Protein backbone atom coordinates (compact mmCIF):
# COMPACT_ATOMS: atom_id res chain seq x y z
CA UNK A 1 0.00 0.00 0.00
CA UNK A 2 1.32 3.44 -0.91
CA UNK A 3 1.90 5.37 2.26
CA UNK A 4 0.86 8.79 1.06
CA UNK A 5 -0.76 10.85 3.78
CA UNK A 6 -4.14 12.03 2.54
CA UNK A 7 -5.00 13.85 5.76
CA UNK A 8 -2.33 15.60 7.75
CA UNK A 9 -3.16 17.16 11.09
CA UNK A 10 -0.43 19.46 12.33
CA UNK A 11 -0.29 20.89 15.87
CA UNK A 12 -4.05 21.17 16.00
CA UNK A 13 -5.64 22.82 19.00
CA UNK A 14 -9.34 22.21 18.92
CA UNK A 15 -12.15 23.47 21.04
CA UNK A 16 -14.81 26.09 21.51
CA UNK A 17 -12.88 29.06 22.92
CA UNK A 18 -10.03 29.65 25.37
CA UNK A 19 -11.96 28.19 28.29
CA UNK A 20 -13.09 25.13 26.38
CA UNK A 21 -9.98 23.69 24.78
CA UNK A 22 -10.73 20.04 24.08
CA UNK A 23 -7.59 18.89 22.28
CA UNK A 24 -4.21 20.52 22.69
CA UNK A 25 -1.54 20.49 20.01
CA UNK A 26 -2.17 17.13 18.37
CA UNK A 27 -0.63 15.85 15.13
CA UNK A 28 -1.27 12.71 13.10
CA UNK A 29 -1.52 11.45 9.52
CA UNK A 30 -4.14 9.38 7.79
CA UNK A 31 -2.74 7.40 4.87
CA UNK A 32 -4.45 6.88 1.57
CA UNK A 33 -6.65 3.79 1.40
CA UNK A 34 -6.58 2.92 5.08
CA UNK A 35 -9.35 2.56 7.61
CA UNK A 36 -8.44 4.90 10.39
CA UNK A 37 -10.34 4.90 13.64
CA UNK A 38 -10.47 7.74 16.14
CA UNK A 39 -11.48 6.41 19.50
CA UNK A 40 -11.64 7.32 23.12
CA UNK A 41 -14.01 7.54 26.04
CA UNK A 42 -17.09 9.72 26.07
CA UNK A 43 -16.34 13.43 26.09
CA UNK A 44 -12.72 13.12 24.97
CA UNK A 45 -13.29 15.18 21.83
CA UNK A 46 -13.78 12.53 19.14
CA UNK A 47 -16.71 14.29 17.53
CA UNK A 48 -15.06 17.68 17.95
CA UNK A 49 -11.99 16.40 16.13
CA UNK A 50 -14.20 15.04 13.36
CA UNK A 51 -15.88 18.43 12.98
CA UNK A 52 -12.46 20.01 12.63
CA UNK A 53 -11.40 17.44 10.02
CA UNK A 54 -14.37 18.19 7.82
CA UNK A 55 -14.04 21.94 8.26
CA UNK A 56 -17.24 22.56 10.22
CA UNK A 57 -15.25 24.29 12.96
CA UNK A 58 -12.06 26.26 12.26
CA UNK A 59 -9.10 25.18 14.41
CA UNK A 60 -7.97 27.44 17.25
CA UNK A 61 -4.38 26.77 16.20
CA UNK A 62 -2.57 24.45 13.82
CA UNK A 63 -3.74 23.12 10.50
CA UNK A 64 -5.70 20.32 8.86
CA UNK A 65 -4.42 19.40 5.39
CA UNK A 66 -6.65 17.27 3.19
CA UNK A 67 -5.10 16.06 -0.06
CA UNK A 68 -2.47 18.85 0.15
CA UNK A 69 -4.96 21.68 0.79
CA UNK A 70 -5.01 23.37 4.19
CA UNK A 71 -8.75 23.52 4.80
CA UNK A 72 -8.67 26.29 7.37
CA UNK A 73 -6.34 28.55 5.43
CA UNK A 74 -7.57 28.05 1.87
CA UNK A 75 -10.01 30.20 -0.07
CA UNK A 76 -13.67 29.39 -0.60
CA UNK A 77 -13.21 27.74 -4.04
CA UNK A 78 -10.45 25.42 -2.87
CA UNK A 79 -12.55 24.51 0.14
CA UNK A 80 -15.47 23.62 -2.13
CA UNK A 81 -13.13 21.38 -4.14
CA UNK A 82 -11.92 19.71 -0.94
CA UNK A 83 -15.52 19.09 0.10
CA UNK A 84 -16.14 17.15 -3.11
CA UNK A 85 -13.39 14.72 -2.09
CA UNK A 86 -15.08 14.10 1.22
CA UNK A 87 -18.25 12.29 2.24
CA UNK A 88 -19.67 12.23 5.74
CA UNK A 89 -22.02 9.75 7.35
CA UNK A 90 -23.67 11.49 10.29
CA UNK A 91 -24.80 9.70 13.39
CA UNK A 92 -28.48 9.60 12.52
CA UNK A 93 -27.98 9.54 8.76
CA UNK A 94 -29.05 13.20 8.38
CA UNK A 95 -31.24 12.38 5.40
CA UNK A 96 -33.49 15.13 4.10
CA UNK A 97 -36.94 14.30 5.43
CA UNK A 98 -38.88 15.77 2.54
CA UNK A 99 -37.06 13.68 -0.09
CA UNK A 100 -37.22 9.98 -0.87
CA UNK A 101 -34.09 7.86 -0.41
CA UNK A 102 -33.44 7.95 -4.16
CA UNK A 103 -33.75 11.75 -4.22
CA UNK A 104 -31.44 12.03 -1.23
CA UNK A 105 -28.75 10.02 -3.02
CA UNK A 106 -29.38 11.68 -6.38
CA UNK A 107 -29.06 15.22 -5.01
CA UNK A 108 -25.24 15.54 -5.09
CA UNK A 109 -25.03 13.59 -8.36
CA UNK A 110 -27.48 15.93 -10.06
CA UNK A 111 -25.63 18.93 -8.69
CA UNK A 112 -22.07 17.96 -9.55
CA UNK A 113 -22.24 15.78 -12.70
CA UNK A 114 -23.63 16.11 -16.23
CA UNK A 115 -25.35 12.74 -16.21
CA UNK A 116 -28.91 12.55 -17.53
CA UNK A 117 -31.88 11.45 -15.46
CA UNK A 118 -31.80 7.85 -16.75
CA UNK A 119 -28.15 7.35 -15.86
CA UNK A 120 -28.65 8.97 -12.48
CA UNK A 121 -31.55 6.62 -11.76
CA UNK A 122 -29.39 3.61 -12.64
CA UNK A 123 -26.52 4.93 -10.54
CA UNK A 124 -28.79 5.60 -7.57
CA UNK A 125 -30.19 2.09 -7.74
CA UNK A 126 -26.63 0.71 -7.86
CA UNK A 127 -25.68 2.73 -4.78
CA UNK A 128 -28.79 1.73 -2.88
CA UNK A 129 -28.19 -1.86 -3.96
CA UNK A 130 -24.70 -1.65 -2.54
CA UNK A 131 -26.11 -0.78 0.88
CA UNK A 132 -28.84 -3.44 0.49
CA UNK A 133 -31.66 -0.96 0.18
CA UNK A 134 -32.93 -2.02 -3.23
CA UNK A 135 -36.68 -1.68 -3.31
CA UNK A 136 -36.71 1.24 -0.91
CA UNK A 137 -35.93 3.92 -3.51
CA UNK A 138 -39.25 5.67 -3.12
CA UNK A 139 -39.50 5.53 0.65
CA UNK A 140 -39.22 8.63 2.79
CA UNK A 141 -36.65 8.59 5.63
CA UNK A 142 -39.49 8.69 8.15
CA UNK A 143 -40.74 5.38 6.79
CA UNK A 144 -37.60 3.32 7.39
CA UNK A 145 -35.71 2.06 10.44
CA UNK A 146 -32.65 3.59 12.08
CA UNK A 147 -30.23 1.07 10.60
CA UNK A 148 -31.67 1.63 7.14
CA UNK A 149 -31.33 5.40 7.57
CA UNK A 150 -27.68 4.91 8.34
CA UNK A 151 -27.15 2.77 5.25
CA UNK A 152 -29.04 5.27 3.12
CA UNK A 153 -26.84 7.98 4.65
CA UNK A 154 -23.81 5.95 3.59
CA UNK A 155 -25.17 5.66 0.05
CA UNK A 156 -25.59 9.45 -0.03
CA UNK A 157 -22.14 10.06 1.45
CA UNK A 158 -20.75 7.83 -1.32
CA UNK A 159 -22.79 9.50 -4.04
CA UNK A 160 -19.75 11.02 -5.75
CA UNK A 161 -17.33 8.29 -4.64
CA UNK A 162 -15.28 10.63 -2.49
CA UNK A 163 -11.66 9.82 -1.73
CA UNK A 164 -12.32 10.04 1.99
CA UNK A 165 -15.37 8.93 3.93
CA UNK A 166 -15.91 10.14 7.49
CA UNK A 167 -18.16 8.18 9.83
CA UNK A 168 -19.53 9.60 13.06
CA UNK A 169 -20.30 6.66 15.34
CA UNK A 170 -21.57 4.37 12.58
CA UNK A 171 -22.63 1.58 14.89
CA UNK A 172 -24.34 3.72 17.53
CA UNK A 173 -27.90 2.54 18.00
CA UNK A 174 -27.56 -0.51 15.76
CA UNK A 175 -28.06 -4.09 16.78
CA UNK A 176 -24.92 -6.29 16.64
CA UNK A 177 -25.97 -7.96 13.40
CA UNK A 178 -26.74 -4.73 11.57
CA UNK A 179 -23.61 -3.22 13.04
CA UNK A 180 -21.51 -6.12 11.75
CA UNK A 181 -23.15 -5.76 8.34
CA UNK A 182 -22.19 -2.12 8.30
CA UNK A 183 -18.61 -3.10 9.21
CA UNK A 184 -18.59 -5.51 6.27
CA UNK A 185 -19.90 -2.82 4.01
CA UNK A 186 -17.13 -0.49 5.16
CA UNK A 187 -14.50 -3.15 4.44
CA UNK A 188 -16.11 -3.96 1.13
CA UNK A 189 -16.10 -0.36 -0.09
CA UNK A 190 -12.60 0.18 1.22
CA UNK A 191 -11.24 -2.87 -0.60
CA UNK A 192 -13.07 -2.42 -3.87
CA UNK A 193 -12.85 1.34 -4.31
CA UNK A 194 -9.81 2.07 -2.16
CA UNK A 195 -11.71 4.76 -0.26
CA UNK A 196 -9.94 6.12 2.80
CA UNK A 197 -12.16 5.80 5.84
CA UNK A 198 -11.98 7.85 9.01
CA UNK A 199 -14.27 6.43 11.65
CA UNK A 200 -15.14 7.85 15.02
CA UNK A 201 -16.38 5.14 17.31
CA UNK A 202 -15.93 3.40 20.61
CA UNK A 203 -17.49 0.07 19.68
CA UNK A 204 -14.73 -2.44 20.34
CA UNK A 205 -15.95 -5.26 18.06
CA UNK A 206 -16.29 -2.80 15.23
CA UNK A 207 -12.80 -1.40 15.85
CA UNK A 208 -11.17 -4.83 15.77
CA UNK A 209 -13.18 -5.78 12.69
CA UNK A 210 -12.29 -2.87 10.46
CA UNK A 211 -9.47 -0.69 11.78
CA UNK A 212 -6.07 -0.72 10.12
CA UNK A 213 -4.81 1.91 12.49
CA UNK A 214 -6.25 3.85 15.40
CA UNK A 215 -5.55 6.88 17.49
CA UNK A 216 -6.90 7.10 20.97
CA UNK A 217 -7.79 10.45 22.49
CA UNK A 218 -7.84 11.20 26.18
CA UNK A 219 -9.80 13.76 28.15
CA UNK A 220 -7.19 14.30 30.85
CA UNK A 221 -4.19 14.93 28.66
CA UNK A 222 -6.27 16.59 25.91
CA UNK A 223 -4.23 14.67 23.38
CA UNK A 224 -3.40 11.37 21.73
CA UNK A 225 -2.39 8.62 24.13
CA UNK A 226 -2.03 5.77 21.66
CA UNK A 227 -1.53 5.31 17.95
CA UNK A 228 -1.17 2.15 15.89
CA UNK A 229 -2.63 -1.28 15.31
CA UNK A 230 -5.54 -1.99 17.68
CA UNK A 231 -4.65 -5.68 18.17
CA UNK A 232 -1.08 -4.78 19.10
CA UNK A 233 -2.21 -2.02 21.45
CA UNK A 234 -4.63 -4.29 23.21
CA UNK A 235 -1.89 -6.78 24.03
CA UNK A 236 1.10 -4.57 24.52
CA UNK A 237 0.14 -1.03 25.48
CA UNK A 238 1.82 0.13 28.66
CA UNK A 239 -0.69 2.94 29.10
CA UNK A 240 -3.22 2.13 31.80
CA UNK A 241 -6.11 3.92 30.07
CA UNK A 242 -5.42 2.28 26.72
CA UNK A 243 -5.39 -1.25 28.08
CA UNK A 244 -8.42 -0.45 30.23
CA UNK A 245 -10.27 0.68 27.14
CA UNK A 246 -9.33 -2.26 24.97
CA UNK A 247 -10.01 -4.80 27.67
CA UNK A 248 -13.25 -3.12 28.69
CA UNK A 249 -12.34 -2.69 32.35
CA UNK A 250 -14.00 -0.12 34.60
CA UNK A 251 -11.78 2.49 36.19
CA UNK A 252 -10.54 1.35 39.59
CA UNK B 1 -14.34 -8.83 -46.41
CA UNK B 2 -15.91 -5.62 -45.32
CA UNK B 3 -14.92 -4.54 -41.90
CA UNK B 4 -17.67 -2.54 -40.25
CA UNK B 5 -15.37 -1.64 -37.38
CA UNK B 6 -12.92 0.21 -39.60
CA UNK B 7 -15.60 2.25 -41.25
CA UNK B 8 -17.12 3.12 -37.95
CA UNK B 9 -13.75 3.98 -36.51
CA UNK B 10 -13.26 6.53 -39.23
CA UNK B 11 -16.75 7.95 -39.13
CA UNK B 12 -16.85 8.42 -35.41
CA UNK B 13 -13.26 9.41 -34.88
CA UNK B 14 -12.86 12.73 -33.13
CA UNK B 15 -16.30 12.49 -31.59
CA UNK B 16 -15.36 9.72 -29.21
CA UNK B 17 -13.63 10.35 -25.90
CA UNK B 18 -9.86 10.04 -26.11
CA UNK B 19 -9.94 7.14 -23.67
CA UNK B 20 -11.90 5.08 -26.25
CA UNK B 21 -9.93 3.08 -28.78
CA UNK B 22 -12.04 1.23 -31.34
CA UNK B 23 -10.92 -1.68 -33.50
CA UNK B 24 -12.61 -4.60 -35.20
CA UNK B 25 -12.54 -8.17 -34.03
CA UNK B 26 -12.10 -11.32 -36.09
CA UNK B 27 -15.76 -12.20 -36.01
CA UNK B 28 -16.84 -8.89 -37.52
CA UNK B 29 -17.77 -7.24 -34.26
CA UNK B 30 -16.25 -4.23 -32.63
CA UNK B 31 -13.65 -4.09 -29.90
CA UNK B 32 -13.68 -1.04 -27.65
CA UNK B 33 -10.56 -0.64 -25.57
CA UNK B 34 -10.90 1.86 -22.74
CA UNK B 35 -7.88 3.44 -21.11
CA UNK B 36 -7.36 5.16 -17.80
CA UNK B 37 -9.87 5.97 -15.10
CA UNK B 38 -13.60 5.42 -15.38
CA UNK B 39 -15.04 7.56 -12.61
CA UNK B 40 -17.26 10.52 -11.81
CA UNK B 41 -15.01 12.95 -13.67
CA UNK B 42 -15.50 11.41 -17.12
CA UNK B 43 -18.59 9.20 -16.86
CA UNK B 44 -20.95 11.71 -18.51
CA UNK B 45 -18.61 12.15 -21.53
CA UNK B 46 -18.05 8.42 -21.84
CA UNK B 47 -21.78 7.72 -21.78
CA UNK B 48 -22.33 10.20 -24.59
CA UNK B 49 -19.46 8.60 -26.51
CA UNK B 50 -20.88 5.15 -25.89
CA UNK B 51 -24.28 6.16 -27.25
CA UNK B 52 -22.70 7.67 -30.33
CA UNK B 53 -20.58 4.61 -30.91
CA UNK B 54 -23.41 2.12 -30.68
CA UNK B 55 -25.93 4.19 -32.61
CA UNK B 56 -23.56 4.88 -35.52
CA UNK B 57 -24.13 1.70 -37.48
CA UNK B 58 -25.16 -1.90 -37.48
CA UNK B 59 -23.25 -3.77 -34.85
CA UNK B 60 -23.38 -7.48 -34.35
CA UNK B 61 -21.30 -7.59 -31.24
CA UNK B 62 -19.32 -5.34 -28.96
CA UNK B 63 -16.40 -6.45 -26.84
CA UNK B 64 -15.12 -4.03 -24.24
CA UNK B 65 -11.46 -4.48 -23.43
CA UNK B 66 -10.76 -3.29 -19.90
CA UNK B 67 -7.06 -4.21 -19.82
CA UNK B 68 -5.91 -0.60 -19.53
CA UNK B 69 -8.56 0.58 -17.08
CA UNK B 70 -6.72 1.36 -13.88
CA UNK B 71 -9.69 2.59 -11.85
CA UNK B 72 -13.37 1.83 -12.17
CA UNK B 73 -16.18 2.65 -9.78
CA UNK B 74 -19.94 2.69 -10.06
CA UNK B 75 -19.79 5.68 -12.41
CA UNK B 76 -17.59 3.53 -14.66
CA UNK B 77 -20.00 0.61 -14.30
CA UNK B 78 -22.67 2.99 -15.51
CA UNK B 79 -20.78 3.50 -18.78
CA UNK B 80 -20.54 -0.25 -19.28
CA UNK B 81 -24.21 -0.58 -18.40
CA UNK B 82 -25.10 1.98 -21.03
CA UNK B 83 -23.09 0.04 -23.63
CA UNK B 84 -24.62 -3.27 -22.60
CA UNK B 85 -28.19 -2.00 -22.72
CA UNK B 86 -27.69 -0.26 -26.07
CA UNK B 87 -26.33 -3.49 -27.50
CA UNK B 88 -29.19 -5.48 -26.01
CA UNK B 89 -31.62 -3.08 -27.64
CA UNK B 90 -29.93 -3.84 -30.95
CA UNK B 91 -29.98 -7.55 -30.22
CA UNK B 92 -26.19 -7.58 -30.49
CA UNK B 93 -23.73 -9.40 -28.28
CA UNK B 94 -21.93 -7.64 -25.43
CA UNK B 95 -18.77 -8.99 -23.82
CA UNK B 96 -16.22 -7.76 -21.33
CA UNK B 97 -12.64 -8.95 -21.53
CA UNK B 98 -9.35 -8.51 -19.72
CA UNK B 99 -11.03 -7.03 -16.64
CA UNK B 100 -8.52 -6.97 -13.82
CA UNK B 101 -9.39 -8.60 -10.55
CA UNK B 102 -10.04 -5.23 -8.99
CA UNK B 103 -12.40 -4.16 -11.77
CA UNK B 104 -14.24 -7.47 -11.56
CA UNK B 105 -14.64 -6.97 -7.85
CA UNK B 106 -16.16 -3.53 -8.30
CA UNK B 107 -18.51 -4.84 -10.97
CA UNK B 108 -19.64 -7.62 -8.68
CA UNK B 109 -20.03 -5.25 -5.74
CA UNK B 110 -22.40 -3.14 -7.79
CA UNK B 111 -24.11 -6.28 -9.15
CA UNK B 112 -23.35 -5.31 -12.72
CA UNK B 113 -24.90 -8.51 -14.04
CA UNK B 114 -28.24 -7.72 -12.47
CA UNK B 115 -28.55 -3.96 -12.50
CA UNK B 116 -30.73 -2.22 -15.07
CA UNK B 117 -31.18 1.43 -15.89
CA UNK B 118 -34.93 1.40 -16.40
CA UNK B 119 -35.59 1.72 -12.68
CA UNK B 120 -38.64 3.67 -11.77
CA UNK B 121 -37.52 6.55 -9.61
CA UNK B 122 -40.58 8.68 -10.08
CA UNK B 123 -42.24 10.00 -6.97
CA UNK B 124 -45.04 7.90 -5.63
CA UNK B 125 -47.82 7.68 -8.16
CA UNK B 126 -50.41 10.40 -7.65
CA UNK B 127 -53.79 8.90 -6.94
CA UNK B 128 -56.83 10.05 -8.89
CA UNK B 129 -58.63 13.23 -7.85
CA UNK B 130 -61.50 11.31 -6.29
CA UNK B 131 -59.11 9.27 -4.18
CA UNK B 132 -57.34 12.45 -3.15
CA UNK B 133 -60.65 14.09 -2.25
CA UNK B 134 -61.48 11.09 -0.13
CA UNK B 135 -58.06 11.11 1.50
CA UNK B 136 -58.32 14.85 2.23
CA UNK B 137 -61.78 14.34 3.75
CA UNK B 138 -60.50 11.55 5.96
CA UNK B 139 -57.51 13.66 6.97
CA UNK B 140 -59.75 16.59 7.88
CA UNK B 141 -62.02 14.28 9.81
CA UNK B 142 -59.01 12.95 11.76
CA UNK B 143 -57.86 16.54 12.28
CA UNK B 144 -61.26 17.47 13.64
CA UNK B 145 -61.29 14.51 16.00
CA UNK B 146 -57.82 15.39 17.21
CA UNK B 147 -58.83 19.04 17.58
CA UNK B 148 -61.79 18.13 19.75
CA UNK B 149 -59.77 15.75 21.89
CA UNK B 150 -57.08 18.42 22.21
CA UNK B 151 -59.66 20.95 23.44
CA UNK B 152 -60.71 18.36 25.97
CA UNK B 153 -57.22 17.59 27.14
CA UNK B 154 -56.36 21.31 27.42
CA UNK B 155 -59.51 21.94 29.48
CA UNK B 156 -58.73 18.99 31.74
CA UNK B 157 -55.14 20.12 32.16
CA UNK B 158 -56.22 23.69 32.97
CA UNK B 159 -58.79 22.39 35.42
CA UNK B 160 -56.18 20.20 37.06
CA UNK B 161 -53.83 23.17 37.41
CA UNK B 162 -56.62 25.33 38.85
CA UNK B 163 -57.35 22.68 41.45
CA UNK B 164 -53.68 21.92 42.12
CA UNK B 165 -51.94 25.27 41.61
CA UNK B 166 -48.66 23.75 42.78
CA UNK B 167 -48.57 21.57 39.67
CA UNK B 168 -48.17 24.63 37.43
CA UNK B 169 -44.63 24.86 36.06
CA UNK B 170 -43.90 28.35 37.35
CA UNK B 171 -40.43 28.70 35.83
CA UNK B 172 -41.71 27.84 32.37
CA UNK B 173 -44.71 30.11 32.78
CA UNK B 174 -42.54 33.04 33.83
CA UNK B 175 -40.12 32.44 30.96
CA UNK B 176 -42.96 32.30 28.45
CA UNK B 177 -44.45 35.46 30.00
CA UNK B 178 -41.15 37.18 29.40
CA UNK B 179 -40.82 35.90 25.83
CA UNK B 180 -44.43 36.54 24.85
CA UNK B 181 -44.98 39.74 26.78
CA UNK B 182 -41.93 41.70 27.76
CA UNK B 183 -39.82 40.84 24.71
CA UNK B 184 -42.65 41.95 22.42
CA UNK B 185 -42.85 45.45 23.94
CA UNK B 186 -40.55 47.21 21.44
CA UNK B 187 -42.26 45.91 18.31
CA UNK B 188 -45.77 46.36 19.74
CA UNK B 189 -44.89 49.89 20.88
CA UNK B 190 -43.40 50.88 17.54
CA UNK B 191 -46.24 49.50 15.44
CA UNK B 192 -48.91 51.03 17.67
CA UNK B 193 -47.19 54.42 17.69
CA UNK B 194 -47.09 54.43 13.90
CA UNK B 195 -50.65 53.16 13.67
CA UNK B 196 -51.84 55.96 15.98
CA UNK B 197 -50.01 58.50 13.85
CA UNK B 198 -51.46 57.11 10.63
CA UNK B 199 -55.00 57.05 12.04
CA UNK B 200 -54.69 60.61 13.32
CA UNK B 201 -53.18 61.88 10.12
CA UNK B 202 -55.66 60.18 7.78
CA UNK B 203 -58.70 61.24 9.82
CA UNK B 204 -57.44 64.79 10.25
CA UNK B 205 -57.37 65.28 6.49
CA UNK B 206 -61.14 64.70 6.45
CA UNK B 207 -62.08 66.25 9.79
CA UNK B 208 -60.12 69.43 9.02
CA UNK B 209 -62.61 70.23 6.26
CA UNK B 210 -65.33 70.54 8.89
CA UNK B 211 -63.12 72.26 11.44
CA UNK B 212 -63.51 69.20 13.62
CA UNK B 213 -59.79 68.62 14.27
CA UNK B 214 -60.38 68.01 17.95
CA UNK B 215 -62.32 64.81 17.21
CA UNK B 216 -59.12 63.23 15.92
CA UNK B 217 -58.28 62.46 19.55
CA UNK B 218 -61.45 60.55 20.26
CA UNK B 219 -61.34 58.78 16.92
CA UNK B 220 -57.88 57.44 17.63
CA UNK B 221 -58.65 56.43 21.19
CA UNK B 222 -61.99 54.78 20.48
CA UNK B 223 -60.75 52.95 17.37
CA UNK B 224 -57.60 51.72 19.07
CA UNK B 225 -58.99 50.76 22.46
CA UNK B 226 -62.16 49.11 21.19
CA UNK B 227 -60.97 47.43 18.04
CA UNK B 228 -57.50 47.90 16.61
CA UNK B 229 -55.44 47.64 19.81
CA UNK B 230 -56.52 44.11 20.71
CA UNK B 231 -56.50 42.89 17.11
CA UNK B 232 -53.12 44.38 16.15
CA UNK B 233 -51.49 43.11 19.32
CA UNK B 234 -52.97 39.66 18.77
CA UNK B 235 -51.66 39.62 15.21
CA UNK B 236 -48.16 40.51 16.39
CA UNK B 237 -48.33 37.89 19.13
CA UNK B 238 -49.54 35.28 16.63
CA UNK B 239 -46.57 36.01 14.40
CA UNK B 240 -44.03 36.11 17.22
CA UNK B 241 -45.23 33.59 19.78
CA UNK B 242 -47.85 31.41 18.11
CA UNK B 243 -45.31 30.38 15.51
CA UNK B 244 -42.64 29.78 18.12
CA UNK B 245 -44.97 27.56 20.19
CA UNK B 246 -45.70 25.45 17.11
CA UNK B 247 -42.03 25.21 16.12
CA UNK B 248 -40.91 24.38 19.65
CA UNK B 249 -43.45 21.64 20.27
CA UNK B 250 -43.09 20.38 16.69
CA UNK B 251 -39.34 19.98 17.05
CA UNK B 252 -39.83 18.26 20.39
CA UNK B 253 -42.24 15.93 18.68
CA UNK B 254 -39.75 15.13 15.90
CA UNK B 255 -36.93 14.43 18.33
CA UNK B 256 -39.20 12.23 20.46
CA UNK B 257 -39.02 14.60 23.44
CA UNK B 258 -42.81 14.60 23.69
CA UNK B 259 -42.77 10.80 23.83
CA UNK B 260 -40.11 11.03 26.52
CA UNK B 261 -42.33 13.32 28.60
CA UNK B 262 -45.20 10.91 28.21
CA UNK B 263 -43.20 7.87 29.28
CA UNK B 264 -41.84 9.76 32.27
CA UNK B 265 -45.41 10.08 33.43
CA UNK B 266 -45.89 13.76 32.59
CA UNK B 267 -48.98 14.88 30.77
CA UNK B 268 -47.49 16.65 27.72
CA UNK B 269 -50.47 19.00 27.59
CA UNK B 270 -50.06 20.06 31.20
CA UNK B 271 -46.32 20.25 30.85
CA UNK B 272 -46.11 22.18 27.58
CA UNK B 273 -49.46 23.80 26.80
CA UNK B 274 -50.76 25.08 30.12
CA UNK B 275 -47.76 27.35 30.88
CA UNK B 276 -47.98 28.85 27.40
CA UNK B 277 -51.72 29.46 27.61
CA UNK B 278 -51.58 31.00 31.06
CA UNK B 279 -48.57 33.14 30.21
CA UNK B 280 -50.20 34.42 27.03
CA UNK B 281 -53.56 35.07 28.64
CA UNK B 282 -51.86 37.10 31.36
CA UNK B 283 -49.42 39.06 29.22
CA UNK B 284 -51.33 39.87 26.03
CA UNK B 285 -53.93 42.12 27.74
CA UNK B 286 -51.07 44.18 29.17
CA UNK B 287 -49.45 44.28 25.75
CA UNK B 288 -52.75 45.57 24.41
CA UNK B 289 -52.89 48.27 27.07
CA UNK B 290 -49.36 49.22 26.10
CA UNK B 291 -50.40 49.31 22.43
CA UNK B 292 -53.37 51.56 23.28
CA UNK B 293 -51.14 53.99 25.16
CA UNK B 294 -48.57 54.17 22.38
CA UNK B 295 -51.19 54.69 19.68
CA UNK B 296 -52.72 57.52 21.70
CA UNK B 297 -49.21 58.95 22.03
CA UNK B 298 -48.77 58.65 18.26
CA UNK B 299 -52.10 60.37 17.66
CA UNK B 300 -51.14 63.12 20.09
CA UNK B 301 -47.87 63.71 18.27
CA UNK B 302 -49.78 64.34 15.06
CA UNK B 303 -52.43 66.39 16.89
CA UNK B 304 -49.93 68.64 18.64
CA UNK B 305 -47.38 69.00 15.86
CA UNK B 306 -49.67 69.21 12.82
CA UNK B 307 -53.10 70.25 14.04
CA UNK B 308 -52.02 72.81 16.66
CA UNK B 309 -53.94 71.11 19.46
CA UNK B 310 -52.58 71.43 22.99
CA UNK B 311 -51.58 68.17 24.65
CA UNK B 312 -53.99 68.94 27.43
CA UNK B 313 -56.96 69.37 25.10
CA UNK B 314 -55.99 66.25 23.19
CA UNK B 315 -55.84 64.13 26.34
CA UNK B 316 -59.08 65.52 27.74
CA UNK B 317 -60.82 64.73 24.47
CA UNK B 318 -59.26 61.25 24.41
CA UNK B 319 -60.55 60.39 27.85
CA UNK B 320 -64.01 61.99 27.37
CA UNK B 321 -65.14 59.39 24.88
CA UNK B 322 -63.55 56.39 26.55
CA UNK B 323 -65.49 54.40 29.07
CA UNK B 324 -64.12 51.99 31.59
CA UNK B 325 -66.26 49.36 29.90
CA UNK B 326 -64.25 49.79 26.70
CA UNK B 327 -61.07 49.06 28.54
CA UNK B 328 -62.48 46.00 30.28
CA UNK B 329 -63.88 44.77 26.98
CA UNK B 330 -60.48 45.21 25.34
CA UNK B 331 -58.87 43.22 28.17
CA UNK B 332 -61.36 40.38 27.78
CA UNK B 333 -60.92 40.35 24.04
CA UNK B 334 -57.12 40.23 24.18
CA UNK B 335 -57.15 37.50 26.78
CA UNK B 336 -59.40 35.37 24.56
CA UNK B 337 -57.24 36.06 21.51
CA UNK B 338 -54.20 35.05 23.53
CA UNK B 339 -55.80 31.77 24.57
CA UNK B 340 -56.71 31.04 20.96
CA UNK B 341 -53.20 31.82 19.70
CA UNK B 342 -51.50 29.67 22.31
CA UNK B 343 -54.01 26.88 21.82
CA UNK B 344 -53.74 26.70 18.04
CA UNK B 345 -49.93 27.13 18.15
CA UNK B 346 -49.56 24.18 20.53
CA UNK B 347 -52.12 22.12 18.60
CA UNK B 348 -50.19 22.57 15.35
CA UNK B 349 -47.00 21.63 17.15
CA UNK B 350 -48.52 18.39 18.42
CA UNK B 351 -49.80 17.56 14.94
CA UNK B 352 -46.26 17.43 13.52
CA UNK B 353 -45.38 14.07 11.95
CA UNK B 354 -42.13 13.21 10.22
CA UNK B 355 -39.33 15.72 9.88
CA UNK B 356 -38.21 19.27 9.37
CA UNK B 357 -40.63 20.07 6.56
CA UNK B 358 -43.54 19.11 8.77
CA UNK B 359 -42.33 21.56 11.44
CA UNK B 360 -42.29 24.29 8.80
CA UNK B 361 -45.83 23.52 7.72
CA UNK B 362 -47.01 23.45 11.34
CA UNK B 363 -45.48 26.89 11.96
CA UNK B 364 -47.14 28.41 8.91
CA UNK B 365 -50.42 26.77 9.76
CA UNK B 366 -50.22 28.03 13.36
CA UNK B 367 -49.93 31.65 12.20
CA UNK B 368 -52.58 31.39 9.49
CA UNK B 369 -55.05 29.62 11.77
CA UNK B 370 -54.38 32.16 14.54
CA UNK B 371 -55.12 35.07 12.22
CA UNK B 372 -58.34 33.43 11.09
CA UNK B 373 -59.42 32.68 14.65
CA UNK B 374 -58.57 36.20 15.83
CA UNK B 375 -60.75 37.80 13.16
CA UNK B 376 -63.54 35.25 13.71
CA UNK B 377 -63.50 35.82 17.46
CA UNK B 378 -63.36 39.58 16.98
CA UNK B 379 -66.47 39.57 14.81
CA UNK B 380 -68.26 37.44 17.39
CA UNK B 381 -67.29 39.93 20.08
CA UNK B 382 -68.64 42.74 17.91
CA UNK B 383 -72.03 41.03 17.59
CA UNK B 384 -72.19 40.23 21.32
CA UNK B 385 -71.40 43.82 22.16
CA UNK B 386 -74.18 45.13 19.94
CA UNK B 387 -76.77 42.97 21.70
CA UNK B 388 -75.47 43.81 25.15
CA UNK B 389 -75.67 47.49 24.24
Short summary of the structure?
The complex is a heterodimer of chains A (252) and B (389). Chain A is α/β, with parallel strands linked by helices and 252 residues long. Chain A has helices at residues 46-53, 76-84, 101-112, 117-130, 146-157, 176-193, 204-210, 230-236, 240-246, and strands at 5-15, 21-31, 35-39, 61-66, 69-70, 86-89, 164-168, 196-200, 213-218, 223-228.
How would you explain this protein's 3D organization?
The complex is a heterodimer of chains A (252) and B (389). With 252 residues, chain A is of the alpha/beta class. Chain A has helices at residues 46-53, 76-84, 101-112, 117-130, 146-157, 176-193, 204-210, 230-236, 240-246; strands at residues 5-15, 21-31, 35-39, 61-66, 69-70, 86-89, 164-168, 196-200, 213-218, 223-228. The mean pLDDT of chain A is 84. Chain B is elongated. Chain B is α/β, with parallel strands linked by helices and 389 residues long. The N and C termini of chain B lie far apart (109 Å). The model of chain B is unreliable at 1-14 (pLDDT under 50). Chain B has helices at 4-12, 43-55, 74-89, 101-109, 129-163, 170-180, 185-208, 215-254, 257-263, 268-306, 311-321, 324-350, 356-388, and strands at residues 20-24, 30-38, 61-72, 93-97. Chain B has two domains: 4-109, Transcription Regulator spoIIAA; 167-388, no CATH class. Chain A binds chain B through residues 96-98, 100, 102, 106, 112-116, 118-119, 121-127, 129-130, 137-138, 140-142, 160-161, 188-189, 191-193, and chain B through 39-40, 43-45, 47, 73-75, 77-78, 81-82, 102, 105-106, 109-111, 115-124, 353-358.
Keywords:
heterodimer; A: 252 residues; Rossmann fold; 2 domains; 4-stranded antiparallel sheet; B: 389 residues; alpha/beta; Transcription Regulator spoIIAA; disordered N terminus
